[in-house]
UniProtKB/TrEMBL annotation:
Organism for this UniProt entry: Nitrosomonas supralitoralis
GO biological process: one example: dTDP-rhamnose biosynthetic process
Keywords: NADP, Oxidoreductase
Reaction equation(s) it catalyzes: dTDP-beta-L-rhamnose + NADP(+) = dTDP-4-dehydro-beta-L-rhamnose + NADPH + H(+)
Family listed: Belongs to the dTDP-4-dehydrorhamnose reductase family.
Entry function: Catalyzes the reduction of dTDP-6-deoxy-L-lyxo-4-hexulose to yield dTDP-L-rhamnose.
Domain RmlD-like substrate binding: 1-289
Enzyme class: oxidoreductase
InterPro entries, A to Z: dTDP_dehydrorham_reduct, NAD(P)-bd_dom_sf, RmlD-like-bd
Name of the protein this chain belongs to: dTDP-4-dehydrorhamnose reductase
Cofactor binding description: Binds 1 Mg(2+) ion per monomer.
Stored Gene3D superfamilies: NAD(P)-binding Rossmann-like Domain (3.40.50.720), UDP-galactose 4-epimerase, domain 1 (3.90.25.10)
Amino acid sequence: MTVLIIGAAGQLGTELCLRSKVRGYDTVAVDYNELDLTNESSTQAFVAQVKPTVIINAAAYTAVDRAETEIASAFAVNRDGPLYLAKSCAKADIPLLHISTDYVFDGKKPTPYLETDTPNPQGVYGQSKLEGEIAVARTLNKYITLRTAWVFSATGNNFVRTILRLAKERDELSVVADQTGAPTWAGDIAEVLLEIVERIHQSKTITWGLYHYTGSPAITWHAFAETICQQAFELGILRKKPFIKPISSYEYPTAAKRPQNSALACALIQEEFLISQADWRKGLEQVLIQWKKNNEFST
Ligand SMILES: NC(=O)C1=CN([C@@H]2O[C@H](COP(=O)(O)OP(=O)(O)OC[C@H]3O[C@@H](n4cnc5c(N)ncnc54)[C@H](OP(=O)(O)O)[C@@H]3O)[C@@H](O)[C@H]2O)C=CC1
Ligand SMILES: Cc1cn([C@H]2C[C@H](O)[C@@H](COP(=O)(O)OP(=O)(O)O[C@H]3O[C@@H](C)C(=O)[C@@H](O)[C@H]3O)O2)c(=O)[nH]c1=O
Ligand SMILES: [Mg+2]
C-alpha cells in the first residue's frame, strides 16, 4: 500500500503525512520543491515512477484575495494540476482523493449546501477550485472529491493564527459577523481521507464521487474569533481577551467576495462511509496546546 501525498508541506498535507505513517502505510510525500503539479510531463513521469496505490492531492493555491490578480497561477494549480493527476491516475488505474472548498458556492442559500446544489463561485479561487473538481470528475471514475471549509492547523497561515497575532497586538478587533461557515481542523480531514484509504486497502466497495465534510458546529467568523480568543485565554496564551467588534462584510472590504452562508451538509459521507463530523473546538484546543508547548505567541 503506497500512499502518494501531493502538497505535503501544507496544513492538510502535514497532518496527512503524520497519520499515514502512523497507520503503517508506505508514504511518499512531496511538495512544490520535489514536484510542481502544474508541469504535466513531470507529474505523469513522477506518478509512473512511484507507482502508488492511491494519490491524495492536498496541494492548492489557497490565497483567496491574491488569486483575484494572480489568476493564471490559481488556475494552473487548482484546475490544471488536478487534471494532470487525474490523467495519471486513469492511466495507472488508481484512485485519486482530491480536496475542494465551500467557496464554490455563492452563499445565498439559507440552509447547508448539499452535494447536489449548483455551485456559483464568487471569486477566482472558488472558480478555479470548481474547475478542478470538474476536471477530475470528467477524467476519472475512481475519485473522491471532498469539499471542506475554513481549515486550520498548527502549521501554515490560517484564521486562528491571524486572530491570535492581532489579539496580541491590539485591544480591539473587528470581525465580520454576516458570513457563516464551518471551521475544520486539518487533523480531522486527514483522518477522514485515511479512513477512505483504509477502505481502498481492504478492497471494500466504494461509492466514488463528491462528498462534503466539515467540522461542527457552523458559526460566523466573528463567533469563531471569539472562541479562539476565549480558548487561548483559558490556556494562558492570551493574558486578556480583546474586544471583538461584530461588523458587516461591507465594513471589511476584500479583493474577493466571500459567501454569506457556506455551511455544508455532511449527511452523505455519514451515510456512505459512517463518518461523523468532528467538533472543531476540540481540534482548536489541540492546535493551541501545541502552540503553547512550542512557546508560539509568547510575549
Ligand atoms: N485553507 C482553507 O481554509 C481551505 C482549504 N481547502 C482546500 O483544502 C486543500 C488543502 O488546503 P491547505 O492545506 O489549507 O493548503 P495550504 O495552502 O496550507 O497548502 C497547499 C500546499 O500546496 C503546495 N503547492 C502550491 N502550488 C503547488 C504546485 N504547483 N505543485 C505542488 N505543490 C504546490 C503549497 O506549496 P507553497 O506553500 O510552496 O505554495 C502548499 O504546501 C486544498 O485543496 C484547499 O483548496 C478547502 C477549504 C478551506
Ligand atoms: C483577519 C480578519 C478577517 N476578517 C474577515 C475577512 C473574511 O471575510 C473572513 C475570513 O478571513 P480570511 O481571509 O482569513 O479567510 P479566507 O482566506 O477567506 O478563508 C478561506 O480560505 C480558503 C482557502 C477556503 O477554501 C475557505 O474555506 C476559507 O477557509 O474574515 C475580518 O473581518 N477581520 C479580521 O481581522
Ligand atoms: Mg486566506
